[in-house]
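Whether sequence alone determines local backbone shape is best considered at the level of individual chains. Part of our work consisted of pairing the sequence of a single chain with a tokenised description of its backbone. This step matters because it turns folding into a mapping between discrete strings. For completeness, the protein is quoted in full, as a sequence line and a line of structure tokens:

_____
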Amino acid sequence: MLWGSYGIVHIITLVLSAAIITGLYFILKNRSRKTQTTVLFILSFAGISAIIFNLVTWNSPIEYLPFHMCSITAMLLPFAVMTKGKVINNLLLLWCVGALIALVLNQAQANYEIWSWTFFFYYFPHTLELGIPILMFALGLTEKKLFCISTTLALTAGIYTCVHLINVWLNQYAIANNIVDWAGNVVKLNYMYSIDPTNPVLQMMYNLIPHPYWYMFVATPFIVLYLVIVYLPEIIKAIKNRKKPTSV
């Protein structure tokens, strides 16, 4: 049975992802902080296992290096859970949206057999990369901070820029050394999709700014809007505190 895109199987898996995350919340909400941390820490390694799976399975490790947003999220998650650091957890509160997009816009993975290891190591890590950052806040293991809006934006732009430079260098290396894929074509790397759009949403962005790297900045207003919505209670609280009269 194929996963498909927007068919009944795909929709069921999206509902299942929501059910897994919701179920984890209700299972853990009355547990001790230590238990919550231990469970989420163990689950946080799902993404790292997927990185290893892809590196050793497809005989083309250069195409499966952990430079996509979800792969970087996978590597950060164990540290985020254990340290409960505000900067890293607030960053992942944005980056977890990437995992949601990967589950919803799954055209490149639509031909996966749902009982295959390929599907398993794609679906469940992305589900947990979406859910664990949310659960860290829902369970009170960390907290939202307004100053983290700026650090999140800066880190996202900085890491994206570094990954783009890695793309440029690796693509030049692949051409110079004639590194080919399974079809015999020279490998073209596109980590964090900084080179080319790969789905209809990214294509619309590319149509507005038809240049590698720069086209992804079309998403900036939507990212800012998302952060404003997520941090709205903290923003309102900060505004109210400013309006309070200071005692003499």
